[in-house]
């Protein structure tokens, strides 16, 4: 019978998940996990503090009348235990631990696309540190306990702003819509997780050279845009030997706020209208609003990022990607063909 209850439990959970997914809510899985944990917790409390004491009292009275201890079969006849209630309540400790760890400590994440190659590859499974920037509630992403601020160079997982999910392709129409949505709703949040690297934080001026595909950052002062005596960082690049995993791309070492590799496609050319426009700034130049971040993928010419749809509000940040704990040899939308053992348990730089 317990197997039947387990199947029913999974079916109900799947139904709730699909219902939540229909409304495109952020943190759908967290909401589902909270519901299941709460339901099983209520059943556990009822079973522990109501059902079991009542059963023990009945058994004690029966043993007192008979003058001898009852067998398990006799106890079951006096007060049978509901298998369904017992099974569901037994799930509570497991669900509670999973909910706590996933909501406040660590969350697994799988790389679905190549936008962060060669740093992160399709098939990598990551550990995301959820308390690196403070503790947030798992449903609305409101900060409960403040922590360190995200830094330039950090690889972060975040809830994509709604404008990042537009399907109109890169171009003026999408950029105009993104500008309108980003400026009128700074805290918009979708239910889709993205992973990128922070390039600029509040007050920074980010300058992307469309021809050379290089970066320059004019650092902010105390979170505000700098106008005089500014510190400017021009990123330096050096070419690496051809990476066998990416024979058609150039792999460069980028020396900016952190040192890491980026991929460049020799054939990719940019046009001004495809970039996210910011009033008062030239094309491909942005001033990051306070409390928001400018992010880019390490696979520079195959990444849909802040250059095209704008900024990431701090509230959207889920956590900091810290380690690769497993890696499958695979391509997007294909079955794995092996394991990349050399990438197991490696730190993300």
Automatic annotation (TrEMBL):
This is Signal peptidase I. NCBIfam families: sigpep_I_bact (TIGR02227). It is a multi-pass membrane protein. GO terms for cellular component: membrane. The chain crosses the membrane at residues 31-51, 87-106. GO terms for biological process: signal peptide processing. It is found in: Membrane. PANTHER family: CHLOROPLAST PROCESSING PEPTIDASE, SIGNAL PEPTIDASE I. CDD domains: S26_SPase_I. Residues 86-325 form the Peptidase S26 domain. Its EC number is 3.4.21.89. InterPro entries: LexA/Signal_pep-like_sf, Pept_S26A_signal_pept_1, Pept_S26A_signal_pept_1_CS, Pept_S26A_signal_pept_1_Lys-AS, Pept_S26A_signal_pept_1_Ser-AS, Peptidase_S26. The active site is at 115, 196. It catalyses: Cleavage of hydrophobic, N-terminal signal or leader sequences from secreted and periplasmic proteins. It comes from Rodentibacter mrazii. Belongs to the peptidase S26 family. One of its GO terms (molecular function) is signal peptidase activity. Pfam families: Peptidase_S26. Keywords: Hydrolase, Membrane, Protease, Transmembrane, Transmembrane helix. The keyword Lyase does not apply. It is an enzyme of class 3 (hydrolase).
């Amino acid at each position: 019978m317990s197997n039947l209850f387990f199947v029913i439990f999974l079916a109900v959970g799947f139904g709730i998940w699909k219902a939540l997914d229909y409304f495109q809510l952020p943190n759908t899985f967290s909401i589902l996990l909270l519901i299941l944990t709460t339901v099983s917790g209520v059943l556990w409390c009822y079973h522990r503090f109501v059902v079991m004491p009542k059963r023990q009292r009945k058994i004690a009275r029966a043993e007192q009348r008979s003058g001898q201890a009852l067998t398990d079969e006799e106890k079951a006849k006096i007060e049978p235990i509901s298998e369904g209630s017992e099974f569901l309540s037994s799930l509570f400790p497991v669900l509670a631990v999973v909910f706590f760890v996933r909501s406040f400590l660590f969350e697994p994440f799988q790389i679905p696309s190549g936008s962060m190659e060669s740093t992160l590859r399709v098939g990598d499974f990551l550990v995301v540190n959820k308390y690196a920037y403070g503790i947030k509630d798992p449903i609305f992403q409101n900060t409960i306990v403040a922590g360190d601020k995200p830094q330039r160079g950090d690889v972060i997982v975040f809830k994509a702003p709604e404008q990042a999910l537009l399907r109109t392709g890169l171009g003026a129409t999408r950029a105009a819509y993104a500008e309108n949505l980003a400026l009128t709703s700074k805290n918009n949040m979708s239910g889709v997780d993205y992973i990128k690297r922070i390039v600029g934080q509040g007050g920074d001026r980010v300058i992307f050279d469309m021809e050379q595909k290089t970066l320059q950052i004019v650092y902010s002062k105390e979170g505000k845009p700098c106008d005089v005596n500014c510190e400017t960082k021009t990123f330096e690049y050096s070419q690496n030997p051809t990476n066998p995993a990416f024979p058609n791309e150039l792999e460069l070492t980028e020396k900016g706020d952190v040192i890491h590799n980026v991929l460049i496609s020799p054939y990719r050319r940019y046009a001004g209208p495809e970039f996210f426009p910011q009033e008062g700034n030239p094309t491909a130049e942005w001033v990051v609003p306070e409390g928001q971040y400018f992010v880019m993928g390490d696979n520079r010419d195959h990444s849909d990022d802040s250059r095209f749809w704008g900024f990431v509000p701090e509230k959207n940040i889920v956590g900091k990607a810290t380690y690769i704990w497993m890696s499958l040899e695979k391509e997007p939308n294909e079955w794995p063909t092996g394991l990349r053992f050399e990438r197991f348990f490696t730190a993300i730089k």
